Amino acid sequence: QVQIVESGGGLVQPGGSRKLSCAASGFTLDVYSMGWFRQAPGKEREGVSCMGHADVSPHYADSVKGRFTMSRDSAKNTVYLEMNSLKPEDTAVYYCAAERASFCGLTPWTYDYWGQGTQVAVSS
Predict the structure, then answer these.
(1) What angle do CA 6, 9, 14 make, to 5 degrees?
(2) Which helix (H) or strand (E) holds 70?
(3) What is the predicted pLDDT for the residue at 98?
(4) pLDDT tens digits, the chain, 124 residues: what are they?
(5) Any idea what DSSP says for residue 100?
(6) pLDDT of residue 53
(7) Alpha carbon distance 10, 106 (integer Å)
């Protein structure tokens, strides 16, 4: 049974940092690509970062490039999203998702499995 569980969300001050975790079970990251997405109230879900199992390095949306870092621990079947220099506009529910593909993309409709999301709020 496929399961994706995000954790690590919470309230952060502007300029602060937060690290999200995404634990996957029921499948292996060796044949799946993983993505991080977010959805703010009243807005569409948008891609933040992704990493294909065949990718050399992660891909990032322009809005987070240089501030967010995605990583993968295959031994733990877990991916992470380290977020630095957070801004109020980063406030959203963050989702982790998986698709059976060698290379990833930042479009949510290609992903097969989703976690329940974790809320990140950036506010003073």
Answers:
(1) 145
(2) strand 68-73
(3) 97
(4) 999 999 999 999 999 999 999 999 999 988 999 999 999 999 999 999 999 988 889 999 999 999 999 999 999 999 999 999 999 999 999 999 999 988 999 999 999 999 999 999 999 9
(5) S
(6) 83
(7) 24
- Structural tokens at position 93: 């529910």
Do you know the residue count of the chain?
124
Q: What strands, in cross-sheet order, belong to the sheet with 3-7?
A: 3-7, 18-25, 78-83, 68-73
Strand, coil or helix: what is 56? Answer: coil
CB 23 within 8 A of CB 5: yes
Gyration radius of the chain's alpha carbons: 13
Q: What is the pLDDT of residue 56?
A: 84
- Residue 78 CA to residue 5 CA, distance in Å, equals 9
64 within 8 A of 48, measured Cβ to Cβ:
yes
